[in-house]
Specification:
3 helices, 3-stranded antiparallel β-sheet, alpha+beta, 7 strands
């Protein structure tokens, strides 16, 4: 039931690929207002189209911060950690999953980007 509720407020399909590891309310140093940080970690599942026998999970890329829709009048920042996959024999070959729900060249979700474009305002990102 909790996951169903979270699907209503988080970007579409996000919880299909990421687990929530922590939710915290923190003071935003820029705005001096309270905001939410939702920490997400990619599931240990090889990207589609690759053979899991040939690749191994080799840690994570640095976390990315993506702004999402506000909740209860407070800014929401998704702190997303993605996995790195390395070929077992060709060690220099590294792959990762591609997620289309994050807007190209933006620090906010595609859904939020589309929403802000429709309203004529675009908030500059909160980047860590």
């Amino acid at each position: 039931m909790e996951k169903d509720l979270l699907r209503l407020v988080l970007p579409a399909k996000l919880l299909d690929h990421f687990a929530i590891t922590e939710v915290k309310e923190v003071l935003d140093n820029d705005t001096k207002k309270m905001c939410y940080h939702i920490l997400l970690e990619e599931y240990n599942k090889i990207p589609e189209g690759y053979n899991e026998q040939e690749y191994e999970s080799k840690g994570f890329y640095p976390a990315k911060t993506v702004q999402d829709f506000p909740i209860r009048g407070k800014a929401v920042f998704l702190i997303i950690t993605r996995r790195r996959w390395r070929h077992k024999e060709r060690k220099e070959e590294v792959i990762h999953s591609d997620y289309t729900f994050i807007a190209e060249g933006s620090r906010i979700t595609k859904e939020l980007s589309d929403f802000l474009k429709d309203t004529g305002r675009y908030a500059r990102g909160h980047d860590k």
